[in-house]
TrEMBL record:
Protein name listed in UniProt: Membrane-bound metal-dependent hydrolase
GO MF, one example: hydrolase activity
Record flagged with keyword Cytoplasm: no
Coiled-coil spans in chain: none
Hydrolase is among the record's keywords: yes
Origin species: Halomicrobium mukohataei (strain ATCC 700874 / DSM 12286 / JCM 9738 / NCIMB 13541)
Length: 309
Protein backbone atom coordinates (compact mmCIF):
# COMPACT_ATOMS: atom_id res chain seq x y z
CA UNK A 1 0.00 0.00 0.00
CA UNK A 2 3.00 2.34 0.25
CA UNK A 3 2.86 2.93 -3.48
CA UNK A 4 -0.93 2.80 -3.64
CA UNK A 5 -1.42 5.81 -1.39
CA UNK A 6 0.61 8.03 -3.67
CA UNK A 7 -0.89 6.67 -6.87
CA UNK A 8 -4.43 7.10 -5.55
CA UNK A 9 -3.85 10.79 -4.77
CA UNK A 10 -2.04 11.24 -8.10
CA UNK A 11 -4.98 9.72 -9.99
CA UNK A 12 -7.59 11.69 -8.05
CA UNK A 13 -5.96 15.07 -8.54
CA UNK A 14 -5.01 14.29 -12.12
CA UNK A 15 -8.55 13.22 -13.01
CA UNK A 16 -10.07 16.32 -11.41
CA UNK A 17 -7.58 18.54 -13.23
CA UNK A 18 -8.47 16.87 -16.52
CA UNK A 19 -12.18 17.36 -15.88
CA UNK A 20 -11.57 21.07 -15.27
CA UNK A 21 -9.48 21.34 -18.44
CA UNK A 22 -6.39 22.54 -16.59
CA UNK A 23 -3.26 22.68 -18.72
CA UNK A 24 -1.90 19.13 -18.92
CA UNK A 25 1.60 20.11 -17.77
CA UNK A 26 0.30 21.95 -14.72
CA UNK A 27 -2.19 19.15 -14.04
CA UNK A 28 0.68 16.64 -14.05
CA UNK A 29 2.62 18.79 -11.59
CA UNK A 30 -0.38 19.01 -9.25
CA UNK A 31 -0.91 15.26 -9.43
CA UNK A 32 2.75 14.52 -8.68
CA UNK A 33 2.81 16.84 -5.66
CA UNK A 34 -0.42 15.30 -4.33
CA UNK A 35 1.12 11.86 -4.73
CA UNK A 36 4.22 12.93 -2.80
CA UNK A 37 2.11 14.32 0.03
CA UNK A 38 0.11 11.07 0.11
CA UNK A 39 3.25 9.04 0.77
CA UNK A 40 4.42 11.38 3.54
CA UNK A 41 2.43 9.87 6.46
CA UNK A 42 4.30 6.58 6.08
CA UNK A 43 7.52 8.35 7.04
CA UNK A 44 6.70 7.04 10.53
CA UNK A 45 7.78 3.57 9.40
CA UNK A 46 11.40 4.79 9.40
CA UNK A 47 11.40 3.67 13.03
CA UNK A 48 11.03 0.08 11.82
CA UNK A 49 14.67 -0.60 10.82
CA UNK A 50 15.68 -0.25 14.48
CA UNK A 51 14.07 -3.64 14.98
CA UNK A 52 16.82 -5.19 12.84
CA UNK A 53 19.58 -4.13 15.21
CA UNK A 54 19.01 -7.14 17.49
CA UNK A 55 19.85 -9.54 14.66
CA UNK A 56 17.66 -11.53 12.29
CA UNK A 57 17.90 -15.02 10.85
CA UNK A 58 16.38 -14.54 7.41
CA UNK A 59 14.23 -12.44 5.11
CA UNK A 60 10.93 -13.28 6.78
CA UNK A 61 12.35 -12.88 10.28
CA UNK A 62 13.70 -9.47 9.23
CA UNK A 63 10.29 -8.50 7.89
CA UNK A 64 8.59 -9.51 11.13
CA UNK A 65 11.14 -7.57 13.19
CA UNK A 66 10.75 -4.52 10.97
CA UNK A 67 6.96 -4.39 11.29
CA UNK A 68 6.76 -5.27 14.97
CA UNK A 69 9.05 -2.33 15.70
CA UNK A 70 7.58 0.07 13.16
CA UNK A 71 4.03 -0.53 14.34
CA UNK A 72 4.91 1.03 17.71
CA UNK A 73 4.13 4.41 16.15
CA UNK A 74 2.85 3.51 12.68
CA UNK A 75 -0.57 4.97 11.82
CA UNK A 76 -0.45 7.31 14.77
CA UNK A 77 0.10 11.09 14.62
CA UNK A 78 1.20 11.17 10.97
CA UNK A 79 -2.07 9.46 9.97
CA UNK A 80 -4.31 11.80 11.95
CA UNK A 81 -6.87 13.87 10.08
CA UNK A 82 -6.39 16.56 12.72
CA UNK A 83 -2.64 16.67 12.06
CA UNK A 84 -3.27 16.42 8.29
CA UNK A 85 -5.41 19.55 8.15
CA UNK A 86 -3.12 21.50 10.45
CA UNK A 87 0.04 20.45 8.62
CA UNK A 88 -1.48 21.22 5.21
CA UNK A 89 -2.27 24.74 6.38
CA UNK A 90 1.30 25.10 7.69
CA UNK A 91 2.80 23.94 4.39
CA UNK A 92 0.63 26.45 2.54
CA UNK A 93 1.75 29.26 4.87
CA UNK A 94 5.38 28.26 4.32
CA UNK A 95 4.87 28.76 0.58
CA UNK A 96 3.10 32.11 1.02
CA UNK A 97 5.63 34.48 2.62
CA UNK A 98 8.55 34.92 5.01
CA UNK A 99 6.17 35.71 7.86
CA UNK A 100 4.16 32.67 6.89
CA UNK A 101 7.27 30.53 7.28
CA UNK A 102 7.63 31.64 10.89
CA UNK A 103 4.01 30.74 11.62
CA UNK A 104 4.33 27.45 9.74
CA UNK A 105 7.46 26.45 11.66
CA UNK A 106 5.72 27.31 14.93
CA UNK A 107 2.70 25.19 14.01
CA UNK A 108 4.82 22.20 13.00
CA UNK A 109 6.87 22.43 16.19
CA UNK A 110 3.59 22.56 18.09
CA UNK A 111 2.41 19.35 16.40
CA UNK A 112 5.64 17.62 17.39
CA UNK A 113 5.23 18.82 20.97
CA UNK A 114 1.67 17.50 21.10
CA UNK A 115 2.78 14.15 19.67
CA UNK A 116 5.58 13.91 22.23
CA UNK A 117 3.27 14.77 25.13
CA UNK A 118 0.60 12.26 24.10
CA UNK A 119 2.55 9.50 22.37
CA UNK A 120 6.09 9.69 23.68
CA UNK A 121 9.45 10.68 22.24
CA UNK A 122 9.27 8.32 19.27
CA UNK A 123 5.91 9.76 18.19
CA UNK A 124 7.37 13.23 18.54
CA UNK A 125 10.43 12.30 16.50
CA UNK A 126 8.45 10.89 13.58
CA UNK A 127 6.23 13.98 13.65
CA UNK A 128 9.36 16.12 13.28
CA UNK A 129 10.31 14.03 10.23
CA UNK A 130 6.75 14.40 8.97
CA UNK A 131 7.02 18.19 9.17
CA UNK A 132 10.44 18.32 7.54
CA UNK A 133 9.33 15.99 4.77
CA UNK A 134 6.29 18.15 4.10
CA UNK A 135 8.43 21.26 3.83
CA UNK A 136 10.71 19.52 1.35
CA UNK A 137 7.69 18.64 -0.79
CA UNK A 138 6.45 22.22 -0.45
CA UNK A 139 9.78 23.53 -1.71
CA UNK A 140 9.59 21.08 -4.61
CA UNK A 141 6.13 22.44 -5.45
CA UNK A 142 7.29 26.05 -5.12
CA UNK A 143 10.14 25.52 -7.57
CA UNK A 144 7.56 24.39 -10.09
CA UNK A 145 5.51 27.51 -9.61
CA UNK A 146 2.65 26.05 -7.59
CA UNK A 147 0.87 28.65 -5.47
CA UNK A 148 0.17 28.43 -1.75
CA UNK A 149 -3.42 27.53 -2.61
CA UNK A 150 -2.23 24.67 -4.81
CA UNK A 151 0.04 23.45 -2.02
CA UNK A 152 -2.88 23.54 0.42
CA UNK A 153 -5.17 21.63 -1.94
CA UNK A 154 -2.67 18.95 -2.90
CA UNK A 155 -1.49 18.51 0.69
CA UNK A 156 -5.05 18.08 1.91
CA UNK A 157 -5.85 15.51 -0.76
CA UNK A 158 -2.68 13.57 -0.13
CA UNK A 159 -2.67 13.65 3.67
CA UNK A 160 -6.42 13.18 4.18
CA UNK A 161 -6.87 10.31 1.73
CA UNK A 162 -3.89 8.34 3.02
CA UNK A 163 -5.31 6.88 6.26
CA UNK A 164 -8.46 5.60 4.55
CA UNK A 165 -6.36 3.36 2.34
CA UNK A 166 -5.09 1.59 5.46
CA UNK A 167 -8.54 0.39 6.49
CA UNK A 168 -8.15 -2.82 4.47
CA UNK A 169 -4.63 -3.84 5.40
CA UNK A 170 -4.00 -3.38 9.10
CA UNK A 171 -5.08 -1.78 12.32
CA UNK A 172 -7.18 1.33 11.61
CA UNK A 173 -5.33 4.63 12.00
CA UNK A 174 -6.10 6.90 14.93
CA UNK A 175 -8.08 9.28 12.74
CA UNK A 176 -8.58 12.02 15.35
CA UNK A 177 -5.27 11.75 17.16
CA UNK A 178 -4.46 13.20 19.71
CA UNK A 179 -8.12 13.07 20.73
CA UNK A 180 -9.24 9.73 22.15
CA UNK A 181 -12.31 9.55 19.95
CA UNK A 182 -12.60 6.22 18.10
CA UNK A 183 -13.82 6.54 14.51
CA UNK A 184 -13.07 3.10 13.09
CA UNK A 185 -12.04 0.40 15.55
CA UNK A 186 -11.65 -2.60 13.27
CA UNK A 187 -10.22 -3.38 9.86
CA UNK A 188 -12.76 -3.33 7.02
CA UNK A 189 -13.30 -6.98 6.09
CA UNK A 190 -13.69 -7.71 2.39
CA UNK A 191 -14.36 -11.40 3.01
CA UNK A 192 -14.69 -13.77 5.95
CA UNK A 193 -11.92 -15.94 4.54
CA UNK A 194 -8.58 -14.25 5.42
CA UNK A 195 -6.96 -15.26 2.13
CA UNK A 196 -9.83 -13.89 0.08
CA UNK A 197 -9.61 -10.69 2.11
CA UNK A 198 -5.92 -10.38 1.24
CA UNK A 199 -6.65 -11.01 -2.43
CA UNK A 200 -9.42 -8.39 -2.31
CA UNK A 201 -7.09 -5.81 -0.79
CA UNK A 202 -4.46 -6.71 -3.38
CA UNK A 203 -7.07 -6.27 -6.09
CA UNK A 204 -7.89 -2.78 -4.83
CA UNK A 205 -4.19 -1.95 -4.99
CA UNK A 206 -3.92 -3.23 -8.56
CA UNK A 207 -7.02 -1.28 -9.62
CA UNK A 208 -5.49 1.86 -8.12
CA UNK A 209 -2.26 1.34 -10.04
CA UNK A 210 -4.15 0.80 -13.30
CA UNK A 211 -6.13 3.98 -12.71
CA UNK A 212 -2.96 5.91 -11.99
CA UNK A 213 -1.38 4.62 -15.19
CA UNK A 214 -4.39 5.59 -17.31
CA UNK A 215 -4.50 9.09 -15.78
CA UNK A 216 -0.76 9.48 -16.40
CA UNK A 217 -1.21 8.51 -20.04
CA UNK A 218 -4.00 11.07 -20.40
CA UNK A 219 -1.96 13.79 -18.72
CA UNK A 220 1.02 13.17 -20.97
CA UNK A 221 -1.04 13.07 -24.17
CA UNK A 222 -0.53 9.38 -24.83
CA UNK A 223 -3.20 6.85 -25.76
CA UNK A 224 -5.75 6.41 -22.99
CA UNK A 225 -5.35 2.63 -23.19
CA UNK A 226 -1.96 1.32 -22.03
CA UNK A 227 -0.17 -0.96 -24.48
CA UNK A 228 0.59 -4.37 -23.00
CA UNK A 229 3.01 -6.89 -24.50
CA UNK A 230 1.77 -10.44 -24.96
CA UNK A 231 4.37 -11.74 -22.55
CA UNK A 232 2.16 -10.49 -19.71
CA UNK A 233 0.22 -13.77 -20.06
CA UNK A 234 3.19 -15.45 -18.38
CA UNK A 235 1.60 -14.26 -15.18
CA UNK A 236 -0.99 -17.02 -15.58
CA UNK A 237 1.70 -19.51 -14.61
CA UNK A 238 1.36 -18.30 -11.04
CA UNK A 239 -1.82 -20.35 -10.72
CA UNK A 240 0.20 -23.24 -9.32
CA UNK A 241 1.21 -21.15 -6.33
CA UNK A 242 -2.31 -21.57 -4.96
CA UNK A 243 -1.49 -25.20 -4.14
CA UNK A 244 2.30 -24.94 -3.78
CA UNK A 245 2.44 -22.15 -1.20
CA UNK A 246 0.71 -21.79 2.17
CA UNK A 247 -2.52 -19.78 1.88
CA UNK A 248 -1.52 -16.16 2.55
CA UNK A 249 -3.20 -13.81 5.01
CA UNK A 250 -2.46 -10.24 6.04
CA UNK A 251 -0.51 -11.62 8.99
CA UNK A 252 1.53 -13.99 6.78
CA UNK A 253 1.59 -12.49 3.31
CA UNK A 254 5.29 -12.20 2.55
CA UNK A 255 5.72 -15.33 0.43
CA UNK A 256 2.69 -14.39 -1.67
CA UNK A 257 3.66 -10.73 -2.06
CA UNK A 258 7.31 -11.31 -2.86
CA UNK A 259 6.64 -14.06 -5.40
CA UNK A 260 3.71 -12.46 -7.21
CA UNK A 261 5.38 -9.07 -7.49
CA UNK A 262 8.34 -10.80 -9.14
CA UNK A 263 6.16 -11.09 -12.25
CA UNK A 264 6.34 -7.32 -12.54
CA UNK A 265 9.90 -7.80 -13.79
CA UNK A 266 8.39 -9.20 -16.99
CA UNK A 267 7.58 -5.67 -18.06
CA UNK A 268 11.20 -4.65 -17.59
CA UNK A 269 12.55 -7.24 -20.01
CA UNK A 270 12.46 -4.86 -22.94
CA UNK A 271 15.43 -5.13 -25.27
CA UNK A 272 16.35 -1.47 -24.79
CA UNK A 273 16.38 -1.80 -21.02
CA UNK A 274 18.44 -4.98 -21.05
CA UNK A 275 20.97 -3.28 -23.31
CA UNK A 276 20.97 -0.23 -20.99
CA UNK A 277 19.49 2.09 -23.60
CA UNK A 278 17.35 3.77 -20.97
CA UNK A 279 16.25 6.71 -23.11
CA UNK A 280 14.83 4.35 -25.72
CA UNK A 281 12.71 2.39 -23.24
CA UNK A 282 8.94 2.76 -23.55
CA UNK A 283 8.39 3.07 -19.81
CA UNK A 284 4.56 3.25 -19.88
CA UNK A 285 4.50 0.05 -21.96
CA UNK A 286 6.98 -1.61 -19.60
CA UNK A 287 4.92 -0.62 -16.55
CA UNK A 288 1.67 -1.72 -18.20
CA UNK A 289 3.16 -5.08 -19.18
CA UNK A 290 4.55 -5.70 -15.71
CA UNK A 291 1.28 -4.64 -14.12
CA UNK A 292 -0.61 -6.84 -16.58
CA UNK A 293 1.55 -9.83 -15.65
CA UNK A 294 0.94 -9.27 -11.92
CA UNK A 295 -2.80 -8.88 -12.55
CA UNK A 296 -2.90 -12.10 -14.57
CA UNK A 297 -1.00 -13.85 -11.78
CA UNK A 298 -3.44 -12.61 -9.14
CA UNK A 299 -6.51 -13.63 -11.14
CA UNK A 300 -5.13 -17.09 -11.91
CA UNK A 301 -4.26 -17.58 -8.25
CA UNK A 302 -7.78 -16.55 -7.25
CA UNK A 303 -9.41 -18.97 -9.69
CA UNK A 304 -7.37 -21.93 -8.48
CA UNK A 305 -7.76 -20.96 -4.82
CA UNK A 306 -11.55 -20.85 -5.19
CA UNK A 307 -11.50 -24.20 -7.01
CA UNK A 308 -9.66 -25.97 -4.19
CA UNK A 309 -11.29 -24.04 -1.35
Amino acid sequence: MFVGHGVAAFALVGAVALSREIDSHRALQLAIVAGLFATLPDIDILYGPLGLLNGVSGVFDATDAFWSTGNVVHRGPTHSLVFAGTAAAAFSLWRRSSAGRVVAATVLVGLSAVATATGGSVAGAVTVLFGIGGLVITQFAARRGLSSGAVLATALVGLVTHPFGDLFTGEPPVFLYPFDVPVVTERVALAADPTLHLLGAFGIELATLWLGLVVYLRLTGRASRPQIDRKAVLGLSYAGAAVALPAPTLEASYQFVFTILAFGVIGATQRQLLSRQLRAVDWPRACATGLGAVTAAALSYLVVYLAVL
